[in-house]
Each structure stands twice: as C-alpha cells, then as structure tokens.
Amino acid sequence: RLAELTQERGWQLYLVGGAVRDLLLADPEKTLLLTDIDLVVDGCHQSYNAVENNQQNDKNPPAVELASALQKTYSNARLDVHGQFQTAALLWHNDPVLDSLWIDIATARTEFYPYPAANPEVEASSIRQDLYRRDFTINALALRLTEPYQGELLDFFGGMNDLQNRQIRVLHANSFIEDPTRIYRAVRFAVRLGFELEFQTKDYIHYAINSGIYEKVQSENYSTQQRVPALETRLKSELKYILQAPYWKPALQLLGELKALRCIHPTLELNQELWRQIRLVDRGLIRFDPEKTLTHWQVRLEVLIAHLAPEYRGDVADTLQFTLDSIERLQQLESAKADVMKRMPECQLASQFYRLLAPYDLPMLILIAVQSPRWVRRRIWQYLTHWWTVKPLLNGNDLKQLGYKPSPKFKQMLDDLLVATLDKQICDRKSAEAFIK
Ligand code: CTP
C-alpha cells in the first residue's frame, strides 16, 4: 500500500539500512521477522528546506505526507512526525496481525556535519547521497519498492561484496570523526555477524581515537552545560545495546583492543584489572541475582565507570544519563569501600557482618566486593550467600499473638530476634518464643 501511495505521487520508495542487510544475510529456509523497517522516499530531487518550509507554507515533506496517508488506511498505527528532520514513523504495538512493528520513513537527504560530532543538518537529495551518509557499506544498500525496476538492489559502495566477504567497511575516511558512536556500531556488527573490521576501517578507528576528538567533544559538552548532549545519548544507547547482548564479552574485548572506551572518558582503558573486575561482577550477578531483578547491562556499565578515578565518575555517569541511584552509588563508592575496610576487621559474628553490610544495596555490594582485597570480597560473598535474606524467626503478628501490645519496643524485639537468628542462638519458633520471654 505504501508503495502504491508513493507511486501515485510520482515518487520513489526504498527499503534501506539493517533490513536490507538482514534480508540478504538471511537463511532462505527460515522466516525472517522484520520488526524495525527503515524506508527512504525520494521526492523527486526538488530542493527542500525543512526550516523554511515550516515557516513559509504548510506542505509536508514527502515522508510525512506518505506516513499520514498510510495511517488513514491503518488507523490503529501511531504516527510520530519529525517535520524538522523530514521523517515520520508508524508504530504498531501488540497488533493482532502485525504484532509489534516500527516503520521509519525518511525523506532522501544528505547530512552535513559542520564540525565533528555535531548534529546533522538536513537537506533534500537523491537516494545515492542518502546512502552515502550511512555508517557501513553493508548498511548502505537499498531495495527499490516502487516501479519501474521494483525489487532492484542499489549497491553504490560495494556493500554486497562486503557482505559476501564478511567485512565491516566505512564509506569514507571521516566517518568515525563525524560520529564516534560508529566505532561501537562497527564492533557490534562485527561481533554479532561474525565479520572482520576491514583493514583501512580499523586504521580510521585508530586515527579517530588518537585525534582526541572525544576529549574535545566531552569538554565541549561540559562547558556548554547542555542537558542532554546528543552524542552522549547515542553513545549510551550503543553501550546498552552491546552490554545487554549475549555477545557482550567479545564485543567489550574488541572495544578494549581498539581503545574505544576512551569515548566514554579519555582515561578509561580495558586493562587486566578491569577485566578481572568485570568477570567477578558477572559471576556475582549470576549467583546473587539469578532472577535478573537488577538491570545487568547497567551494573556492567557501572563497573566500567567505577574504574575511573573517583573525581570523574559522577560527571561521566551524569553525562551518560545514569539513573539517580546509580549516580549516587558511584559517588558514594569510595566512602562505602573505606567504611567496610575499616570496620570489617572488627566483625566476628554473623550479626556484626550483617549490620555492616545491610545498609548497602546489591549493586553497591558487588562494586565494593570487586574493588576490594580478597578477604573483604569473601566476606561480602558470604554475607550475600547466607545472611542477606535472613529474617527474624518471629514477626510483629507473632509477637501480638504472644500477648505483646504493639509499641516502639517491638522494633527492638524484632532486631534482637534477628541478631539471635543470625548468630544461631535460636533456630526455630519454640526457641524464638523462649528467647523473647
Ligand atoms: N546509521 C548510520 N549511523 C549511525 C546510526 C545509524 O549510518 N550512527 C544508519 C545505518 O544505515 C543503519 C540505519 O541507520 O543501517 C538504521 O540504524 P539502526 O536501526 O540503529 O541499525 P540497523 O542497521 O537497523 O541495525 P540493528 O539491526 O542492530 O537495529
């Protein structure tokens, strides 16, 4: 229907990006379910200035016009319009036929980067130019959906060849300077698809990292006090993508080899010590959070940031838009570690370890454990294994049934019961009742 609507207007419609790549890589024997579809409409090469258009008349950009027309047929879809960027999206959520589907429609465009890592400016252009602004050759293929030549594959930059040779290759030397998050994307695609980073592409990555662009971008963001720097938002979503994927370990390893963690902070290196901590965290999460009540990718990211010198952690966490409790954790990690190190040697009874460690939440205890000497870590693991979930053998209701009237003393009684339970002075209800008396 969308192709018909495009053709009626004399325009061209293309399937682009990851969907084309995945279609070409798909096993013909298996069904490929596309849930995220990118389309580009070429509105006939007319020059189109989004800003001027918004101000001077109300004609919609081709992508917006098409999406609105399609929504008239599929009224159950939600329509999101970004007139400024000449794009529109149609979203189906839990649809009985389409299930969850996201269609992004963009107007063919070129993006200019007036200075490195800035937001793109938009100007209408042909499909070739639109594809040229993309990250890798394998993502710069297009499939024509309209007549004439419906079904034609447009491959201007050798994407098909790179798909066959399993190579991740950028389209031009400045690609990573313009958008440093592409380094993370290159790694993600390489590991996920089992591809190699093409030789020269790797060189461009090294060049971009050594050029110090990240330090520059970060200092610009801090000094201009932008609330949500666009680059950091994109970096965060790439980090999330990688750290929650099943292949997060080899991907992180490759990021480390490329020294790409310097995008997060210029001093961040994936050295042996950080690897050791990451492995420990992973074991801790498997053991103490098997139900995945925590967001594991976030804890992994916290470990990376916690590896920075204390004075940098809060700012980086803030820039990467960590949750408030996560920012607080990183800010308090040093004092929590010092507190535990100082007081732990005095602890002998289980209840004493409990009192020391109970004020900290699980991610904080994991962070403290992996950054502390072995004797501290062992005690924290012991606390999490045996004592963390211990409850007093009687609760408030039990006390009422035993004839005690609710009073501020209740808390003290329950506390005493917990200590006695932890230290194994009582082991069942009967001994608990005797203890209370
Ligand atoms: N793109 C780009 N540079 C970026 C992000 C995206 O050039 N920094 C382009 C690529 O052509 C990409 C398309 O936008 O194919 C869509 O981006 P996205 O949905 O993030 O990636 P997909 O290729 O669809 O990959 P995935 O399957 O992981 O979603």
What this model shows, in words?
- This protein has helices spanning 2-8, 18-25, 50-56, 62-73, 127-132, 159-165, 175-178, 181-193, 199-210, 213-224, 230-243, 248-257, 272-288, 296-306, 310-319, 324-343, 350-357, 362-371, 374-387, 396-401, 409-422, 429-436, and strands at residues 12-16, 36-42, 78-82, 87-95, 99-107, 109-112, 121-124, 142-144, 153-154, 167-168, 196-197.
- With 437 residues, the protein is an alpha+beta fold.
- Strands 3-4-5-2-1-8-9 form a 7-stranded mixed sheet. A two-stranded antiparallel ribbon has the order 6-7. Strands 10-11 form a two-stranded parallel sheet.
- Strand 6 and strand 7 form a beta hairpin.
- Helix 8 packs parallel to helix 11 and helix 18 packs antiparallel against helix 19 (374-387).
- Cytidine-5'-triphosphate (CTP) is lined by residues 17-18, 36, 38, 134-135, 139, 179, 181-182, 185.
Helical segment tally? Answer: 22
Strand content: 5-15%
Count of extended strands: 11
Can you tell me the residue ranges where pLDDT is under 50 for at least 5 consecutive residues? 45-57, 115-125, 222-229
Question: What value does the Rg take, in angstroms?
Answer: 28 Å
Q: Give the strand order of the largest sheet, numbering strands 1, 2, ... along the chain.
A: 3-4-5-2-1-8-9
Structural class: alpha+beta
Largest sheet: 7 strands, mixed
